[in-house]
Amino acid sequence: MSTGLIIVIVVVAVVVVALIGVAVAMPQLRSRRLQQQFGPEYERAVAQHDGDAKEAERELSERVKRTGELELHPLDPAQRERYLARWTALQEQFVDAPGKAVIDADRLLTELLRERGYPEDDQEFALSVHHAGSLDGYRVSRSAADRAAAGSATTEDLRDAFVRARETFDELVTEGTGTTTERTN
């Protein structure tokens, strides 16, 4: 066998081994990327799929694809100031009427999401892609707003929900500005 043929065989073998290595590593890299992007939502999706990580990852990847088609945008300064003023009013309202304040905070978050370009029919779905870290707080505040409307929320539930709603509000109202809002609750 000639030296040239041996070199070609070795090069082909190295390329094949490298391709196999990449093929093996890609799913792990994809999993790690989705875990980092979605945080606790990744584990929630795996649990919803009875521990089937591949199926959960398929769903999460679909979420990324679908929300990639959205035209999300930050608020302009005037919009931001209006939302901040409305939140301040909600904080003041919370002292005297915590249930109503949580319900109104839920409505304000829904309006803010819509104004930012999130779809009205499934804001939670899109929020999971762009703000996975505050998604649990969003869910807590939504649930508490429902319980408040039914008259079954405790004051502690309402307080926790209001604080969690504020975290989501802060992310949404300041995204794209390089600033954060000052917490007063």
Main sheet: strands, sense, barrel: none
Strand content: under 5%
Overall structural domain count = 2
Mean pLDDT: 86
Shape: elongated
Give me the count of strands. 0
Number of helices: 8
User: Which structural class is indicated by helix and strand composition?
Assistant: mainly alpha
Radius of gyration: 23 Å
Tell me the distance between the termini. Answer: 80 Å
Helical amount: over 70%
Spell out the helices and strands N to C.
HHHHHHHH
Low-confidence stretches: 180-185
Ordered list of secondary-structure elements with their pairings:
Layout: H1 3-38, H2 40-48, H3 53-68, H4 77-96, H5 98-116, H6 123-130, H7 135-150, H8 155-174
Helix pairs in contact: 1-2, 1-3, 2-3, 3-6, 4-5, 4-8, 5-7, 5-8, 7-8
Structural account:
This is Secreted protein. The protein is mostly helical. The chain has 2 domains: 3-68, no CATH class; 77-174, no CATH class. The chain contains 8 helices and no strands. It has helices at residues 3-38, 40-48, 53-68, 77-96, 98-116, 123-130, 135-150, 155-174. α5 crosses α7. The protein is elongated and about 90 Å long.
Would you kindly provide a brief summary of this structure?
The protein contains eight helices and no strands. The protein has 185 residues and is mostly helical.
Throw out a few tags for this protein.
single chain, mainly alpha, Secreted protein, membrane, 2 domains, transmembrane helix, 185 residues
